[in-house]
Each structure stands twice: as C-alpha cells, then as structure tokens.
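Tutorial handout. Part one gives the primary structure; part two gives the three-dimensional structure as tokens.
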Amino acid sequence: MNKKTVRDVTLTGKRVLMRVDFNVPIENGKVADDTRIRAALPSIRYVLDQGASLVLMSHLGRPKGDQAEPKFSLRPAAARLQELLGKPVPFAPDCVGPAVIQMAAALKPGDVLLLENLRFHKEEEGKVKLSPTATDEEKQAAQAEMKKKQAAFAEALAALGDVYVNDAFGTAHRAHASTAVVCKFFKENLAGFLMEKEIDYLGRALSAPARPFVAILGGAKVSDKVKVITNLLDKVDTLLIGGAMAYTFYRARGLPTGKSLVEEDKIDLAGDILAQAQAKHVTLLLPVDNIIADAFSADAHTKIVDDRIDAGWMALDIGPKTGVLFAVEIAKAQTVVWNGPMGCFEMAPFAAGTLAVAQAVADTKCLSIIGGGDSVSAVNKSGLADKMTHISTGGGASLEFLEGKELPGVAALTDKS
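Part two.
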C-alpha cells in the first residue's frame, strides 16, 4: 500500500470529506443489512477521535440521476449510523447547494453529517444520454459538456471539506465525481482503513502470494471472468473452475453439456485458456461430477453424473467428488482467492458445492480472500465468514483489481513520499 492513509496527516481541527459505501438494502424505511455501514465505522471513529469534523457522502441504488427519488434516500442510513455511533448524525437535504454548505460549516470537532444520495445528480456518474441518431461531433460535444458539469459538481463537493478520504472500495473502479474527479481539488487525498485493507490484501495476493497459490473461480459466464483468468494464469499454481462457466470449458474439451448454460461464442476462447494453462504449468481443474436437473427450479428432478451431461438436463452445481477434489487442492494452499459460486447456491438443492468449497477454505490456515459479489453472499450464508482472512466489500472493484486494472478511485489517492 503506497497510498497515504488517514494515519499519515494531522486531522485535528479540519473538516474531512469522506466517500463511504452506504449502498445498503432499505426495507420499510429502515436499513435491512448494515454490513457496509459497520465496515466504515473504524475510519469514521478514527477521524472523529482525531478532533476533526466529518462530512460523509455515498450513493444508494440506481436513481435516474436527475431528480430526488424518496425510495433511494440515504436518510435511513443516517438513522442507522446514529444508532451505531451513539451520537447525532444530521442528514443534509442534498449533497451540494447553500443549505449543505451551511450545515457543513456549522460542524464542530467530533460532529458528523451525512449527505443525500450523490446519484440524485447525473453529474456524479457523468453519463450522457444520447440520441441514437447523434453524430460523432454531437456525441463529443455532449461528452465534453458533461465533463465540465461533472468537474463543477466535484468542485462543489470539495468545498465541503479540507481533506478528502476515500473509504469506498466498492466504487473505486468508477471514475465518478466523488471517487476520482473530486481529488483534483484537494492537496491531500487519503485512503480510509477499509480502502487500505482491500488494497493491501488483494495487492498482496497478486504481487507476492505465499505459495501454493490457488484461485477458485465460478459464476455464470466465461466472458465475465476471462480477464481475471488470463491475469491469474501468470500468478497462480492451481486454478479451480466451477459454476456454469465450467460447461463452456466442457464443450472446449468436446464433452456433452445437455441444456447447461454454455457461451457458444466463447468455446474457442475456453480452449485457448486450457492450452495456456498447460503451457504455463498451471493445474486447471474442472468439475469431475455434477448435480444436474431437468429444469431450473428448486423442485426439479436431480441426479449426480460424471463429466457428461445428459441431453435434456442442465448442470446446476458441482458434484460431491468435485467438492472433495477441490478441497484437497485448497488444503495445500498458502494463498486462496475465491470469486464466484460453484452452482446456483440460492436454491438449496444446488448449494452443496459452494458450501463445500467455503468449508474447505475455512479449514485452511492460508491467506484467504473472498472477492466480492455472490461469493460473499455464499460465505455469509455458510456461516463461515469469520473463518476467512478477508472478505472484499467490492464486487466489481475486486474483480477489476484481479484483472490487473488500475482503479480510478485508487489511482487518484495521494502516494506516500
């Protein structure tokens, strides 16, 4: 981690503008899952304990971006944060404007303010709605105009603080106003503790992993993970592939897949990946048995077969032999990165494979990193989350990090001198 963190500067008497990820589920006007809010508490408490005041900003959901939609208001998040901190958390009616400036200016050391949803302003994401008939010149002009508006929006946000802190790794892969553009208006752009932790663990796995290094990849599509696979082939010792994406690899090996999900246009690519793995002496394992069903339903008829899927049936989970095979490889590991479930774990008949992998990772003493999204849901469902070294809060961000991409929200932070 070569980025400056909140530990590296004096915050006493300053007003800190912090980007957090409070994109939480809201049900009946209350926060249904406060995991992301709790994840930000160490940074929030540290800043307040240093004698600074704090302005928090976040997005929530996918509003249209040009109007305030009550169902996407962050007000319930302010209420939950107030409960967790045990102190008042005023809620701003917007994230920019005279009223917000006045509320921020009134903050005293130790005070905290939460702004309304950033995405109520289309300038946050900087997306341009274009007519299908727009010419290239019109597209360029519209994008240039939006870039100016986004910079002005970011500058208005920056006016609310003296120091910027990004603790929202889950949005670090987006070059939004509050994650990247805003940094142009601050001398100090710092990482919060959650951001620091994410970069540290994921970076350690990719740059200097303890070996053997085992990557477990699942999910539906090869196309979603191809860049991760190709990047990891130069780094891992073993690659375990499950989920529906495995059946595109089956087809590349000439195996029948029945009605299983297969990306027909990615079969040749899967074959290339298998060849690359062999050339690079990476052990690449596919399921040796599968739980198949006659319909995509929890009530479907099921059976266990080897690596040949019968016509009219679809594979929806790895089989028990594969669970044991994968567990043996995981037991050897010193570093494990896992991204993507082994099957349709949301349905009980097809959850066993994912739970078997979760148990295998939990049983090791290795550095284990769970890479966001459905993998996190699966680990939480398994009840084994406390057995994992690190569970990433960023689905898309962790995936792009594993692809080897530079994340705009990370790149914009200040390097340590």
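Part three, for discussion. Residues 136-158 form the longest helix (23 residues). The chain has two domains: 6-198, 209-402.
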